[in-house]
Amino acid sequence: MDDIISTKTEVDSAFLLGEILGSRRAFSAVAGRCSAADAACLRRIRDEKLFVSRAETWDEFCPKFLGMSRANANRVIGYLEEFGPDYFELAQVTRISPTEFRAIAGSVRDKAVHWQGEAIALIPENSERIGEAVDALRRTAQTAAPQKVSRAARVAALRRTCERVASEFAELAREPVSRRENPSLWSVRAELLSRLHELDLQS
Predict the structure, then answer these.
(1) Is 111 part of any domain?
(2) Where in the sequence is the domain holding 109, given as residue range(s)?
């Protein structure tokens, strides 16, 4: 009986994953670039571990079934968690980097850019006006006094940094090295773990 239940669960998980991957391909085809819905698909696959029906790890699943590295997938998810859907809506009609968006985020909400008392809807038809507004907002942000970055933004940035560090460790660990070179990597790892342990003790 347990084997039957386990098999059914695996089949259901594989079917759900297939549906989500199909939805993601549709979102990507329509948007041309990664959309908020696409990012939400990635987050669900990762957080609910739906990938295990196709691959043993998220690291293996991403390039094979998503066409991107794990670091890139996590970066997209991080943007969704930090900025919400509005970042992706704006990125579809004007090229804007996460850093630039962060500087003008207060003027982008409810699927519109708010500029000079007007709410410009984030749709392709408004791309020229949106570009003009974004350029003006960028210039204003550059000359304004620096604003304090929110705790949520700092935590999201820290998470992305952790992902990059973990990916770098994984790549270095896979590279063939001599016995004399290898201990240096593990000494860095030991130092990092020691510092994290110190933070645990302080808290």
Answers:
(1) yes
(2) 97-143
